[in-house]
Amino acid sequence: MEFVVFLLAYVLRRKLDGANLFSGEVFWRKAFGYSHSVVPGKEASLSKGLLMVAVPVLLLFAAEYWLRSAGWSLAVHPLAFLLLLGLMGTPGLGRVLDDYGNAWRRGDMQGAWRQIHDLLPPVERGAAGSPEHMHRALSDTLIARVFEHYFVIAFWYVIGGPAGAFAAGGLIGLRDHWPHAAARPRFGRLAGIVSFLPARLLGLTFGIAGDLAGWLSEGRSAVLTIAGENRKTLIAAANSSLTGYELEPERFSKLHPDEWPDFGERSLAAIRGLLNRSMLVWICGFALLVIAGVV
């Protein structure tokens, strides 16, 4: 039943994303927004934020345990379904990417930049010196956002149920929305720990869902490197799994100058296709675990 719950939540969440509805980012911003006040000198403290995530996690774990012990296991599934709907999702992202691709095709690079400016991390918002750099920043952000808002949640849901999914989503939310900037890098390190295994698993999945030969020659080493950053691992694995230089705009422009106006849409379509196929691989893997009685 856990598989059915996840599959239904995933399908509905994708539809909600397309309609730009029910963003989990809004929930985290409001939840953590009440923590603006802090004792001077304690802005970098993690205790309050971790407590705000730990208490719901413990309550979810206790509620699931009690319901299953009482013979009401079916009552767990609606709770898990609603929780997954809130934790997963990138609402509005598809529309932004479509507008960006259209602007790129017209050669309106300033218009393309305006479409994605708010989507990029703060460090990248003032660094778009060329179309190539802008597109690399967008590609990295697209892979990272879909990874954190779908694959990380799915991984920890399978491992730890609703409580595990909420814990992973909560740490990512603390990194992005905690009101005190001094604490965000430390929350980011915790979120990186939570994302470590899912990143390696997704990097492996890219080889299955994409060009396996290219992944074996270039991407495998990135996935097997323990010390590598999660984002760099995913980018390296994705790049090796794509066959048309969709993550290498400089190389593409030299090899296919006549097709440069189509590169924006072509690259994003390839990345989104790789991510969608990878999620399909995960869903099939989840189903096999259920059939084997592991989950």
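Above is the first protein from milestone M3; the second protein from the same milestone is given next.
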Amino acid sequence: MHPELITEDQAWDLIQTKIASATAEQRQQIQQKIKSSMNIEKNGDETVATFSDISIENAYISVLDPSALIVSARKTGTSKIVWHGAAKKGNLDLYLSAGMLNKLKKGSISAGVGIVMTALLYAAGGPAGGFAAASLNAALKFVVGAVIKENIKHFKAGRIMKIRNWKYKGMSYQ
């Protein structure tokens, strides 16, 4: 059987429609694939987890629709998470590429938050659950909601979202 070739845009649409019905086992498989695709570096008290947008999409698609294969004709964006100190303190910068922002803009806030949360929760040093996950989820709802509602049709530059002590503290351009 030959794989079905799909574009990145088709992949993103597929992810958003199938993520709500993903089983716990599928979510765990996705999380493991995302974790294994990240480049993680320690720099003093900082932990930096870098990942390409296409690696996130591939992690989802390979589990949610294994018969599909993403074909990318353009340069893929790179996003990263920089944890400042111990992750449990909730000090991080989330760098989202213009491509990821454009994809988030197309979808719903809950789907966008779910996709980004999966990457964050399993990055090196990331929180594993409880208060930290709930706090980060609330901050991300605000951030992703702000991105989706922003009066921009197409992002040309990425954004840096600053979260300190589990609270959203602002956004700047990359």
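Note on the second protein: The longest strand covers residues 46-52.
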